[in-house]
Design a protein that fits this description.
about 170 residues; mainly beta; seven-stranded antiparallel β-sheet; two-stranded antiparallel sheet; 9 strands; elongated; disordered N terminus
Length: about 170
């Protein structure tokens, strides 16, 4: 055990934590300073922006579920079903305005699955190419286009159907 000498000019004490740094009388103990951690704001901002855009798109699609206006008013051609095979199909449409487009599809009008454009790069465009994979042979499928226009307006198509050929 160490002994302490009490004097006004040369006493030595330890800091508040066990094993602390010796201090002299009249000195204040200071906790070691540590640089605060800073998050990578670029990556957080990017994810936040992407999440906001996704929420806006979903909100626009949901608010357009009343069916007005219908996406067919924007389509110059399609939707057209191409390259129908037992396990895959391509659906193509061309719109007059750049829109962000999603195809909901499934074996019933409850759909349950979605597809985004194969060439989607985070912005709306006019040529829409959807490839649906994992289909069953000799089965009827339903699909519907939903989209967000350049001013945030939502669109939804009527129900369409196609049948895959037997294997």
């Amino acid at each position: 055990m160490q002994s302490r000498t009490e004097s006004a000019d040369a006493s030595s004490e330890t800091g508040p934590a066990a094993g602390g740094t010796p201090i002299r009388a009249g000195q204040l103990w200071q906790a070691p300073t540590q640089e605060p951690s800073r998050p990578n704001l670029r990556s957080q901002t990017g994810w936040l922006l992407a999440a906001c855009l996704l929420l806006l798109a979903i909100g626009g699609i949901l608010t357009s579920c009343g069916g007005t206006p219908e996406i067919e008013t924007l389509l110059k051609s399609g939707p057209t079903v191409f390259d129908t095979e037992a396990h895959s199909v391509k659906i193509v449409a061309i719109s007059s305005l750049p829109i962000v487009c999603v195809v909901s599809w499934g074996p019933t009008t409850d759909y349950g699955l979605t597809s985004t454009d194969a060439d989607m790069e985070g912005a709306g465009h006019t040529d829409h190419h959807h490839v649906l994979l994992g289909l069953q042979p000799d089965t009827e499928y339903h699909f519907r286009f939903s989209g967000i226009g350049p001013r945030g307006e939502g669109y939804r198509s009527k129900d369409y159907a196609f049948r895959t050929p037997p294997s």
